[in-house]
Design a protein that fits this description.
single chain; alpha/beta; TIM Barrel; 2 domains; 8-stranded mixed β-sheet; 8-stranded parallel β-sheet; 15 helices
Length: 460
Amino acid sequence: MWAFELSVDLIVRNARVGSNPDIVTDIAVSDGIVQELGAAAASGDTEIDALGALVTPGGVDPHCHMAQISSTGVPTDDDIHSGTWSAINGGTTTVGAFAVQHRGDQVRDVVNAMVDRVSREAVADVALHLILTEWSESIKSDLDWVLDRGIVSLKIFTTYDRLRLAPDAVIDAMAAAGRHGMSIMVHAEDDVMITEGRSRAIATGLTDARGHQESHSRLAESAGVAEALRFADRADVPIYLVHISTAGSLDEIRSARSKGAAVTVESCPHYLWLDEALLQGDLTTTAAFMSSPPLRGAEDREALWAALVAGEIDVVASDHSPYRMDAGKLPNGNATVFTEVANGMPGVEMRMPLMMSAVADGRLTLERALEACCTTPAQFLGVYPQKGALLPGSDADLVIWDTGVERTVHHRDLHDAVDYTPYEGLRVTTWPSQVLFRGQPVGRSSSPGSASYLKRQVSS
């Protein structure tokens, strides 16, 4: 930190910067870019007094489903506009969303359509991943074009009939992506176990959320993780494992890492805060809490928290999956069975307040929270230090936090297009008091298309 004298657009005064919260300093911003941190001798065109509050980079959430059609044809209720508006109000200023190549779709068509939507609708910056549900020589030949469009990460599934790739296709896709310098995200669950569990649940009349829970067992996840790690080893590529929820999966990851595997591990707030008991009861209530993988119990949650504290979990992402209870969650009303429920929960707006509350409550250090929610996801997306950092040259995406708040979460206070939050009634102790996006305060309304599609390049 040093004194500076500049002509700037904005000065945030008296800020406790997340990277060095014991020191109160000023942040100078021009043209939406952080210029300096230090004792400002000059004045800005606009000045905000943070009054000694904690100021961090805007959050980076690399795993969000918005403007997306599920494999069963169900649209998310958040489009790019409402999803990014929800994100930015919760202190997340950059998200990773998905262009989905459903079977029969042309890669170029789905990528062009999603880039166009982001450009027209986004109010927080958006990077895109490409989900592949098929693998062919034609799709392989499109990877150079995909890179030219700024997508440098693929996501593949090892389960779901309409999404999964066969094992040989998984290995070949991983290897091809690796040769192009692309990142590979994997939804890793064992399809054979899930299919058998689903059939057994239906045969025994278990049609509520417990049927889903039994199908997507702990063992199905850890077996899927072990297989994905073996595939990555065979293809000789690093992988990014999404939404890890069990202690058994962490054991598989530790074993692979001990042998030199390069793996980035993601978990989600709902696995850290919510309990599998929420899946007990009538589907008209429990569908709200259905996700894949399902919620787990106290033993798994404690294992996840310990791994997060220790740095074994690299990223906390929301896996924002916004389906309304009166639509995708219960498509057949009271007659809905678990196989018809759109899986996933909304969470992009709550991710940062929950994680920062964990800091305020002493469960997690500020350094680890910012690594998991800002720095590491920005590095994974290839946009660090433009995003995920508060440094000279970084985008002036800033969050001023109220760390002395006692607040009860209610969906009526959130900004998504869903009709519930899984965190209803939860108490939090930290909340954004002001969010700045490229140096501009986020107001009560948003202008669609005011943010950018982040055209990325592979790391050199």
